Amino acid sequence: MDNQELQKFICEKGLTVAEAMRKIDKNTTGILFIVNPNGVLLGCITDGDIRRYLLSGGKMEDDAFSAANKTPRYAKSNEEAKHLYHKKNFIVIPVVNEEGVVIDLYTGESGETNRKLRNPLNVPVVINAGGKGTRLEPFTRVLPKPLIPVGDLPIIELIMQEYQSYACNDFHIIVNYKRDLMKAYFADNERKYDITWYDEEKPLGTGGGLSLLRGKFDSTFFFANCDALLTANYESMLKFHKEHGNVITMICAYKTVNIPYGVVEMGVNGAIEAMKEKPVMTFLTNTGIYIVEPEVIDDVADGEAIGFPDIIERERQKGKKVAVFPVSENDWMDMGQLPELEKMRKKLYGE
């Protein structure tokens, strides 16, 4: 690996958690190695480390080294790195010299894939696919949003295949707008999916359609809008949900926005309290993907039109446990608007 490529995986101590997250997103491996000014390996940090740190109360502006693993695995030769890589199923193995300086990274041989096998979750999946998709007009005047293709497949099928990779094969789809086209597509599909359909007779919002599933579940289920594809670890999400006894876990992605202007904070009588030139803002945004307990369905009245975020707030006001599971921006692809649709296609299929 040449030095320019190596630098994508390396940072010096002093980077903030937010900066480390952005660098991890760019190298797409989920890991970053922290070195001192001489290049000596000090630790490593993964997107999982960052998530655990933030869930424990850490802040995005904290030093990333606070969230890092200070005893990373490393090798002193490429042969040793190759052995470690396959033995423990690591993503990347750093190779260091006698002084501990990172001189190379082993990421597998050309054409080799080393993905961890996904454990079967066998959790039912509810997909809300009843909306009109007005943000994607004029396409949605012809096709319902779930059937708009992203490369070779429509978005809803890409979402379903991601769940199937965890052996989640029991699909429950709420439909309304152009529902006959939806059903016809899957009726003729050579890939056979186990789907139960639920017809909304009137628009019920992003949450109200759950009333149609009353009595269908006696265990945890995934609930997703049909315009977002998530490639994060579903097993980790489910484990978090169950360990914390949540009735709803909202999957949220850290979104980074570069403000192209100088930002001014104003006090009393117009006094300038602070100025920041072209700041970078990081915040959590709702992906529209949730893990839900069946008792939530019982709190949705028949025919009630309501957004699912409003249901979450209602559950929270009742004193029930609702929580956020944060994921990397890189793990979330949204197709709700035309520019995002093209970004998703490029990310999945390349240029």
Describe the structure.
Helices cover 28% and strands 27% of the residues. With 351 residues, the chain is α/β, with parallel strands linked by helices. It has two domains: 104 residues, CBS-domain, CATH 3.10.580.10; 225 residues, Spore Coat Polysaccharide Biosynthesis Protein SpsA, Chain A. 36% of the residues are buried.
Provide tags for this entry.
351 residues, CBS-domain, Spore Coat Polysaccharide Biosynthesis Protein SpsA, Chain A, seven-stranded mixed beta sheet, three-stranded mixed beta sheet, 12 helices
CATH superfamily of the largest domain: Spore Coat Polysaccharide Biosynthesis Protein SpsA, Chain A
Number of domains: 2
The tally of beta strands, per DSSP, is 18
The helix/strand class is alpha/beta
Profile the largest sheet. 7 strands, mixed
Large-scale geometry: globular
Strand content: 25-35%
- Helical content stands at 25-40%
CATH class of the largest domain: Alpha Beta
Taking Cα atoms only, what radius of gyration do you get, to the nearest Å?
Answer: 23 Å
Mean pLDDT, all residues: 87
